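User: Sequence recovery, please. Input:
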């Protein structure tokens, strides 16, 4: 594989996006490279194409495996492990979303639940608990909604996304009918 300027630009951008998704830039670059590669790549190829150390590749592979974003394959008569994206782009998005929920939202919900179980000691804590309760309810609703979305087929989810604000118009129309 040869990284043309356009391909390299995409890979570098994936590195920047990776840091926003919750893993480091190098891991994002590795995943971007694997996404655009027609063939599975082995660690030395990844190292050479991205000009990073073999150790960095090894750590990056472990990180991508922990996110369940890559799969390991083997070729006949070749002892090397080859890496490729695990599933479709849609499945990748769901995995990133699920991992971020586990790493960010779930601990926040746990903290909020623990804080809301305690009786407030004063008015300031009572006010703060009110706000924490609002945050908890919002995160619970979003988590429930996201779980329902994850259960949809890619085709149904695509249809729902294409409806976009059209769903809001249907709800507004329903509200007018009920009045």
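Assistant: Recovered sequence (179 residues):
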């Amino acid at each position: 594989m040869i990284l043309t300027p356009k391909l390299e630009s995409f890979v570098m951008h994936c590195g920047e996006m990776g840091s926003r998704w919750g893993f480091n830039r190098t891991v994002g670059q590795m995943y971007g490279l694997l996404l655009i590669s027609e063939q599975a790549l082995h660690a030395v190829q990844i190292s050479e194409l991205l000009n990073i150390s073999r150790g960095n590749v090894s750590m990056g592979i472990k990180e991508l495996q922990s996110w369940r974003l890559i799969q390991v394959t083997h070729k006949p008569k070749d002892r090397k492990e080859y890496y490729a994206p695990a599933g479709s782009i849609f499945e990748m998005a769901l995995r990133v979303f699920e991992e971020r929920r586990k790493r960010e939202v779930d601990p926040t919900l746990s903290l909020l639940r623990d804080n809301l179980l305690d009786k407030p000691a004063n008015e300031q804590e009572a006010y703060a608990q009110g706000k924490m309760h609002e945050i908890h309810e919002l995160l619970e609703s979003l988590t429930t909604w996201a779980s329902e979305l994850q259960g949809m087929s890619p085709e149904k989810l695509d249809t729902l996304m294409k409806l976009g604000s059209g769903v809001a118009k249907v709800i507004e129309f329903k509200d007018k009918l009920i009045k």
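The first strand starts at residue 41 and ends at 42.
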